[in-house]
Amino acid sequence: MDLLRFTTAGSVDDGKSTLIGRLLYDSKSIFEDQLEAIEETSKRRGDGHVDLALLTDGLKAEREQGITIDVAYRYFATPKRKFIIADTPGHIQYTRNMVTGASTANLAIILIDARKGVIEQTKRHSFIANLLRIQHVVVAVNKMDLVDYSEEVYEKIIKDYQEFASRLDNIVDITPIPISALNGDNVVDKSTSMPWYQGPSLLYHLEHVYVGGEENHVDARFPVQWVIRPQSDEWHDFRGYAGRVAGGVFKAGDEITVLPSGFTSQIKAIHTADGNIDEAFAPQSVTLTLTDEIDISRGDMIVKKNNPPQSSQDLEAMICWFSNKPMASRAKVILRHTSREMQAIVSEVKYLVDINTLHKVEGAGTFAMNDVGRITLRTAQPVIHDSYRRNRQTGSFILVDPGTNETVAAGMII
Ligand SMILES: Nc1nc2c(ncn2[C@@H]2O[C@H](COP(=O)(O)OP(=O)(O)OP(=O)(O)O)[C@@H](O)[C@H]2O)c(=O)[nH]1
Predict the structure, then answer these.
(1) SS3 for 239?
(2) 14 and which of 73, 111, 275, 360 could share a cystine (Cβ 3.0–4.6 Å)?
């Protein structure tokens, strides 16, 4: 069945937990026992209604104890589609979590409190969605019940939002929806309180939005994760390369090149857990065997012969700084890119981006937590890559502090 991955972003108390709870509840994706448990808790606490935010409270409780949970993934399904929600905490310091949650999403729901309108967080979240090339954004104006379901209030917010978003050129589709997560207006069922709104409910939109064609099916890329050489006699000739297709299509018989060595060969067969297949495409996980015995190890990339990626020791990239320690000057880092890892140094900080104005701030020299900007990286070995624009997998990386093993930044290659 078709799968949609989406992320939710909003400030604290905009109603994210309530919205996710409402989606699960009204689409009947929660289990009876879960429902009984939250009904009981709500009754015990004397709430007049069933508090749907309790469905996602596991995350909240852990957060309150000071445990850093970056992103919680939730699954639900309707007869039309399967969904994976990346649920990220809304506090200002958690931009990095949104980057993590959004990095695999097809769509972002940006929540706005109808009483507050477009605020800095809204802009920050939209900017990140754009940076990560999430093409579909739903602007969910929540708590419409608290502004008397006013069309004027809603229209004003959407106008403000569109003014800002017109400068975000990667977002191709913005769908505004007025909702009340608490009362369920326009979440799963169409609201009767807002007859002026002609569009779909949120769930209807999530079920029907077309997100095909986002994988790169042109440039064949296969980062090798494991070399498989079984020890048994029966299999002693077998040498397979396991990994996940990061782009394009591989077929038995295809002429391939292995990078960085440059050796060439042909695909003999494509194995999966369910038997051999004739062709593999992103994001399938497969094991390839080749017609020649050549030296391949983890971190190598198998590509089609006439369609090589780029290779360079100097990478231009946009990064989001995650660490609460500011970036040191000429910071030494470990670059993790596809299945490869190597030393690198931040050779230049070009500029930071002011997310409110989208202006470049030059001469900053360093990054603080949540800062976004452009750098040049010098790597110890050539990095075999594509631009993030062409391929989200082979165009993205993370930076790790070699001393503490902390993930200090996520980056997108320009
Ligand atoms: N009136 C009204 N209240 C709402 C609505 N949606 C959420 N709320 C209330 O707003 C408060 C915050 O909602 P949550 O769902 O916990 O907010 P959140 O964004 O998940 O907050 P964090 O998890 O702390 O980031 C709760 O008291 C909800 O009951 C709505 O549509 N209308």
Answers:
(1) coil
(2) 111
Query: How remote is the CA of residue 9 from the centroid of ligand 1, in Å?
Result: 13
Residue ranges, the chain, pLDDT below 50: 59, 62-63, 65-69, 92
Ligand 1 neighbourhood includes 10 CB (under 6 angstroms): yes
Tell me what pLDDT residue 34 has: 64
Give me the pLDDT at residue 67, please: 42
**Which pLDDT score, from 0 to 100, does residue 41 have?**
74
pLDDT at 156 (0 to 100): 98
Establish whether the linkage from the previous residue to 260 is cis, with ω within 30° of 0. yes
Nearest CA to 302 among 274, 268, 272, 341? 268
Length of the chain, please?
414
**CA 152 to ligand 1 centroid distance, Å:** 22
Q: Is 103 in the pocket of ligand 1 (CB under 6 A)?
A: no
pLDDT at 70: 56
Q: Which atom of ligand 1 is nearest to the CA of 142?
A: 31
ipTM given for this complex: 0.96
How far away, in angstroms, is 37 Cα from ligand 1 center? 20
Q: Distance between CA 328 and CA 404 in Å, rounded?
A: 14
Q: Please tell me the pTM assigned to this model.
A: 0.78
- Burial per residue of 222-241, b for 16 or more beta-carbon CB atoms within 10 angstroms, e otherwise: bbbbebeeeeeeeeeeebbb
Interval between CA 187 and ligand 1 midpoint (Å): 14
Point out which residues pair with 140 in neighbouring strands. Answer: 111, 177
Atom of ligand 1 nearest to the CA of 179: 31
Tokens describing residue 105: 């999403």
Please say whether the beta carbons of 4 and 82 come within 8 A.
yes
Task: Say how many Å lie between the CA of residue 199 and the centre of ligand 1.
Answer: 23
Determine which residue's CA is closest to atom 4 belonging to ligand 1: 182
Q: Please report the atom of ligand 1 found closest to the CA of residue 59.
A: 23
* SS3 call for 131: helix
Q: E strand or H helix at 153, and its extent?
A: helix 151-165
The pLDDT value recorded for residue 62 is 46
Check pocket membership of 86 for ligand 1, CB cut-off 6 A.
no
